[in-house]
Amino acid sequence: MFKYKYRLLLLLITMFSFSCSSDSDENDDDGIAGIDKTANLQGLGDSAPHLLSDAEFTSMNIEIVYVNGFAPNEAALANFKKFLEERTFKPNGINISLRAVSSSGKAPFSIEEIVEIEKETRTLYNEGDEIAVYIYFADGKSEKDEENKFTLGSAFRNTSMVIFGGTIEDFASRPNAPTESDIEAAVLNHEFGHLFGLVDIGTEPQSDHKDDDNEGHCNVPDCLMRASIEFGSGIIDEIEGGRVPQLGMHCIRDLQAAGGR
């Protein structure tokens, strides 16, 4: 059964809300013939040490599948890769590959539909000393969107996440909004923070910085993993001029204790 825990929400009236949906189905194996997918069908945060350290996996292969017309911005990908390199030990490198697919025509999406799309489009799984991650850039919105809050992205399972490109595109077109590339970078980094097990969803906190009102998030001001930041002076100010929100020291110490930088 899928669990809905962590959603990345955007409150347009008064705040950005950074949270994500978590979904897991550990027994699901529709399978590409000859490929063992079990290691990539675990719960959110379960592969945090594997993503962070080089103890078992010395490289990371990120497969980004995007719907035609919704390719991620190059600047966002550069920021994203830098974020990963700063927090992980992968001596054999981090590779990001992109592949376009046709629209599924299923928008607005339930998380179950995203899982089905992953089954149909994912081609890379853990192999040897290389850990694989799947990211889907959708051409629409989440079915969970409401009048004043919108899901930007959702981390699900241990190596899977979705970015709702249609929602990001719509918000970036609003007057005085951050650039689309900066919003994409913030969402990518935040969601991967959940794959890293932040906050207390697989990676043990080294200090008291959990947001008791928003599971999986940080209570430290200005941290990338905050659940909500005041709209006028919070994340907007951080993103302005390309200053995408960064992880706070409490979150960084958690990742270091789990094998990261």
UniProtKB/TrEMBL annotation:
The keyword Coiled coil does not apply. InterPro entries: MetalloPept_cat_dom_sf (IPR024079). One of its GO terms (molecular function) is metallopeptidase activity. The lineage of its organism: Bacteria, Pseudomonadati, Bacteroidota, Flavobacteriia, Flavobacteriales. Keywords: Signal. This is Membrane metalloprotease. The keyword Heme does not apply. Residues 1-21 form the signal peptide.
